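User: Can you recover a sequence for this backbone? Please restate the input before giving your answer.

Assistant: Of course. Working from this structure:
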């Protein structure tokens, strides 16, 4: 009787290496022997090529792919995205981030985003969150986050070289970024008479919009704002055609940017507006859009002729550039 093969579950990073080897011509049998898995498993992994690559590219922390073995995502993906952005910003400033502070911020974001259900933000939840995103606890040293500062400086030098090589002027260089706007949120503090000991509270509104701004590096072209709301046809739009609005309006159930909306904006709004501007300036029909590596940004965006395309900022340098 043959010995039963021990079950081997590969990490996402190893699975991607396996796929790369197949594409280079290595036989499935050789790969099966190298990784200690069956040929049918090799075929199954290769079938998931697109899903694995998309999942890994959307990850805020590439190093987490070394240990991660599943593509299971959080129940509250918007919450995870907000927390990761907050952690990144705080660490860029050199401020320590503790487990309890992440849990407290998670509860705050959960309420601000108006998410349904209940979040306990327990130690178990925190452990799973850290495992999902490759976050670990390290000692604090006197030096600031020099690795981030160095990465930012390195990127600046390489990007300038890239612009010169591709003959792209600042007029042809664009940048875009999103911001949340809680448009019904009232101030948390108030002026009051000395006779008032307490100010009556109010429940904070969770109504929010996402705003995308975009312009070129010279500031000569500021593209029409993108606004993302929850409703497909807000009542305030009655009698108004979408194309007549002073903004590009999209809808998403949580009023968040996602890959589908960003792709549609890039292809149907950004490219035509940029082409028109370049034509008016007698410039080559060539441009670069610089964006951060948020999960809502697709990895491969470019015009059909390949002359207008996206470049990504390295992780954790946005605040330094």
């Amino acid at each position: 009787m043959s010995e039963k093969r021990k079950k081997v579950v590969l990490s996402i990073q190893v699975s991607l290496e396996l796929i790369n080897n197949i594409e280079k011509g290595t036989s499935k049998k050789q790969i099966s022997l190298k990784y200690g898995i069956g040929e049918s498993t090799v075929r199954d992994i290769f079938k998931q090529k697109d899903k694995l690559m998309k999942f890994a590219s959307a990850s805020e922390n590439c190093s987490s792919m070394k240990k991660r073995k599943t593509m299971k995502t959080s129940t509250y993906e918007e919450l995870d995205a907000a927390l990761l952005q907050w952690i990144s910003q705080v660490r860029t400033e050199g401020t320590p981030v503790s487990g309890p502070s992440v849990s407290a911020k998670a509860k705050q974001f959960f309420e601000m985003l108006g998410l349904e259900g209940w979040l306990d933000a327990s130690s178990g939840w925190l452990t799973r969150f850290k495992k999902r995103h490759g976050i670990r606890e390290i000692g604090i040293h006197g030096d600031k986050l020099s690795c981030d500062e160095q990465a930012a400086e390195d990127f600046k030098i390489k990007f300038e070289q890239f612009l010169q090589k591709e003959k792209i002027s600042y007029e042809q260089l664009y940048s875009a970024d999103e911001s949340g706007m809680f448009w019904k949120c009232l101030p948390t503090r108030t002026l009051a008479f000395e006779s008032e000991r307490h100010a009556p509270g109010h429940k904070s509104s969770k109504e929010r919009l996402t705003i995308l701004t975009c312009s070129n590096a010279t500031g000569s072209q500021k593209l029409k704002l993108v606004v993302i709301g929850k409703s497909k046809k807000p009542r305030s739009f009655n009698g108004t055609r979408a194309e007549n609005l002073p903004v590009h309006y999209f809808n998403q159930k949580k009023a968040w940017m996602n890959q589908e909306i960003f792709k549609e904006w890039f292809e149907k709004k950004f490219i035509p507006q940029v082409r028109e501007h370049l034509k008016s300036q007698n410039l080559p029909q060539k441009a670069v859009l610089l964006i951060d590596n948020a999960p809502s940004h697709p990895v491969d965006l470019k015009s059909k002729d390949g002359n207008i395309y996206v470049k990504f900022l390295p992780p954790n340098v946005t605040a330094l550039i």
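That completes the design. The domain at 12-66 is CATH 1.10.10 (Arc Repressor Mutant, subunit A).
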